[in-house]
Amino acid sequence: MQKEFRKFNKGGELYWLLGLLFVSLGVALCAKANLGVSMIAAPAFIIHEAIDGIAPTFFTIGVVEYLVQAFFALLLCAVVLKVKISYVLTIVVGVIYGYVLDMWLLILGPEPFDAVWVRYVMLIVGDVATAIGVACFFRTYLPIQSYDIFVKDMSITYKLNINIVKPIYDFSLLAVSLVLAFTLFGDVKEFNWSEIYKTSFHSLGLGTLITTIINSPLITLIGKGCDKLMGTEPLLPKAKNFLERH
């Protein structure tokens, strides 16, 4: 008789760790593919490129990333009309995420993959890794990145379907990223747009559009797999109760 599969139920904290590692790895892989990073990661990459050479050397992509995330945490407070400890802690998570992202970028190196087909393969690998991470973040009680908690708490506060809110949020950030890329550099006419299929325009490219389209369905699909493999019960229930009350 085949043994019945029993999933691991107490994954509340493990989901957080997996989310942190997979999202940062996915973003780093997409950056190295040089076809355009995700619409969510794009603003930080664009701003970093715009200030590169002007700002101090410690202003890495990771640093710019957690500053952008801090802005989103403050914006969330304004949108839901409340301040929670988890919103403050999400800024701390953003700092941790920023340095983990810098770690992956350092490990992978700055040079993009050579062959175009390899770039597309690694783009998809990066998108899947990011989707795994976001799906994990949606299932933890611990504070997560402000990008993801923005979607999660907006859905809860206004009783909206998270699978509808997420794509709207994604395309909104894509629009913001396009505005930043077109206004901060002023080289739209000089860029060889015939090569956009194999390179990016200031971290935006065909890969960004692909990611925007497939991101939400991937997260939904992977989320269903997560639910079958691991539950969301905490190992530290008192910590969960505290965060939920505050």
What does this molecule look like?
This protein has 246 residues and is mainly α. The protein has one domain (12-184, 195-245). It contains nine helices and no strands. Helix 3 packs antiparallel against helix 4 (85-108). The longest helix has 24 residues, at 85-108. The chain is globular, with a radius of gyration of 18 Å. The protein starts with 11 loop residues before the first helix and ends with a helix. The mean pLDDT is 89.
Summarize this structure as a short list of keywords or feature phrases.
9 helices, 246 residues, mainly alpha, single chain, 67% helix
Write the layout of secondary structure elements.
Elements: H1 12-33, H2 42-51, H3 61-80, H4 85-108, H5 116-137, H6 146-157, H7 162-184, H8 206-229, H9 237-245
Biggest sheet descriptor: none
Regarding quaternary structure, what we see is single chain
Shape category: globular
Could you tell me the number of beta strands? 0
How much helicity do the residues have? 55-70%
User: Could you list the spans in which at least 5 consecutive residues all have pLDDT below 50?
Assistant: none
Structural class: mainly alpha
Number of helices: 9
The end-to-end distance, rounded to whole angstroms, is 48 Å
Summed up, the domain count is 1
Q: Residue-averaged pLDDT, rounded?
A: 89
Hey, roughly how much beta strand do the residues contain? Answer: under 5%
Radius of gyration: 18 Å
Quick recap of the structure?
By secondary structure, the protein is an all-alpha fold.
